[in-house]
Design brief:
With 155 residues, the chain is an alpha+beta fold. The protein has six helices and seven strands; from the N terminus they run E-H-E-H-E-E-H-H-H-E-E-H-E. Strands 1, 2, 3, 4, 5, 6 and 7 form a seven-stranded mixed β-sheet that branches.
């Protein structure tokens, strides 16, 4: 499967100033991705980003502007699914926990993914490389960002 890495900057950059393959950290390969390469279809990737952030942000050209309550909007559905999954984990039997029956590991992984999906978009911003979930949680979203380089990665 494929996903994307988006460089986000505080000021618009020229194509020559955008991130390169060397900005992707070594830990990313082998733990998350098999490989990454520059995107071949920038417009399609920008549309994918736009659709992923629908109701949370506006993307005009390369400029990304988040709504005032962007984090709340973005996490609303994930939060509901997280709580449902948490309720399901509350009834796990000792046998499931011990691994002799059921699929506890899958259920636990789903809970973790609802909090921080590792196989989704990644953002590279101010020399930090993080999942979209982490970035939205920990970044000041009150000013516009600009989409720079875009990389396709395979996992």
């Amino acid at each position: 499967m494929h996903s994307r890495i988006f460089e986000l900057t505080d000021e618009e950059r020229t194509e020559d100033e955008r991130m390169s393959w060397f900005h992707i950290p070594e830990w990313f390969f082998g733990t998350i991705a098999d490989y990454a390469e520059e995107s071949e279809n920038r417009e399609a990737d920008l549309n994918w980003l736009r659709m992923s952030l629908e109701g949370t942000a506006e993307l005009e050209g390369n400029e990304l502007t988040f709504h005032e309550d962007a984090a709340i909007r973005y996490f609303k559905g994930k939060h509901k699914a997280f709580l449902r999954q948490l309720d399901e984990l509350k009834s796990v039997t000792l046998e499931e926990f011990a691994g002799t029956t059921g699929n506890f590991g899958v259920k636990l992984h789903l809970l973790d993914s609802l909090y921080n999906e590792e196989f989704e978009f990644y953002f590279y911003h101010n020399d930090c490389f993080m999942t979209m979930d982490e970035w939205i949680r920990y970044t000041d979203l009150t000013h516009p960002f600009f989409v720079g380089g875009i990389f396709d990665y395979h996992y």
